[in-house]
Amino acid sequence: SSGINAEYGEPPHTSDDQERVPVYLTSVLQLQEDICKARHEGATDMFRESTFVGAVNEKLALVQVLTKLYLMDYGRLSRALVYQKVVFDFRNMPVFRLSEGAC
User: Fold this and answer.
1) Cα angle at 45 between 67 and 56, to 5 degrees?
2) What pLDDT digit, counting tens, does each position of 48-101 carry?
C-alpha cells in the first residue's frame, strides 16, 4: 500500500470483491497527493449534503444544500470528478467491453 493511502485515507474501491492493485509510480502518487492537499473540507461536506433540484440549461444545474440553492457547472464538475476517479483508481479501473454493434 502506498503512503498516500495511509496519510490521506483510502480512496473508494471500484469493486468490493477484488483486491486493489498497488500503485508505485511516483508521478501518480504525486497527483494523488496534490488532489488531497487541494481538497476543501467545506466543499466536500457541501457535495455530500447536496440534493439535485434540476437542470437549468445545458451547462448549469441547481442543487440544494440545507436551505440554500446553488448553481453548479456540471460539465466542469464532471471533468474534475472523472479526473480524480482516474487518478485514484489508476491500475484498478474496471474493464468495459463494448458490444459488436458499438465498434
Assistant:
1) 55
2) 999 999 999 999 999 999 999 999 999 999 999 999 999 999 999 888 888 887
Integer angstrom CA distances of residue 85 from 52, 88, 89: 21, 5, 6
SS3 4: helix
User: How far apart are alpha carbons 70 and 47 in whole angstroms?
Assistant: 11
Task: List Cα–Cα distances, 64 to 9, 35, 58, 59, 79, in angstroms.
Answer: 28, 25, 18, 17, 21
Taking the complete model, does pTM exceed 0.70, yes or no?
no
The set of cell numbers assigned to 1 is 500500500
